[in-house]
């Protein structure tokens, strides 16, 4: 099964939003379980989740620049996939 970059970005954004949103039930449960106020919990999660979002965003930008220039994007995709599998 092939996963498109747009699907990857959507899933990444979903996980980011789930960790940071004050409306998310898992955020409420985690803050209740730890005994921390909700917004203190969200503030502490920004450091961890924000770093992951910045790294993923940088990767997506680099890949979009790499694959947008030229006609042989499919060939480069296969080469990159084979390199990652090694």
Strand content: under 5%
Give the ordered list of helices and strands: HHHH
| SS summary, helix count | 4
Low-confidence runs (pLDDT<50, min 5 residues)?
none
Number of domains: 1
Q: Average pLDDT value? A: 78
Task: Summarize the biggest pleated sheet.
Answer: none
Helix content, binned percent: over 70%
Q: Decide which structural class fits the backbone.
A: mainly alpha
Overall geometry: elongated
Cα gyration radius (Å): 17 Å
- Count of individual beta strands: 0
End-to-end Cα distance: 19 Å
Task: Give a summary of the structure in a few sentences.
The chain is mainly alpha-helical and 86 residues long. It is 81% helix and 0% strand.
Q: What does this entry look like structurally?
A:
This protein has one domain. The mean pLDDT is 78. The chain has 86 residues and is mainly alpha-helical. The chain starts with a helix and ends with a helix. It has helices at 5-20, 25-34, 38-68, 73-85. The relative contact order is 0.09. It contains four helices and no strands.
Strand and helix layout:
Elements: H1 5-20, H2 25-34, H3 38-68, H4 73-85
Helix pairs in contact: 1-3, 2-3
List the keywords:
86 residues, mainly alpha, 4 helices, 81% helix, 0% strand, elongated
């Amino acid at each position: 099964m092939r996963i498109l970059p747009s699907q990857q970005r959507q899933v990444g954004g979903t996980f980011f939003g789930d960790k940071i949103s004050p409306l998310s039930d898992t955020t409420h449960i985690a803050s209740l379980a730890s005994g921390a106020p909700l917004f203190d919990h969200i503030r502490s999660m920004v450091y961890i989740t924000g770093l992951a979002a910045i790294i993923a965003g940088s990767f997506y930008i680099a890949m979009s620049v790499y694959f947008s220039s030229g006609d042989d994007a499919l060939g480069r995709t296969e080469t990159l996939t084979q390199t990652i599998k090694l």
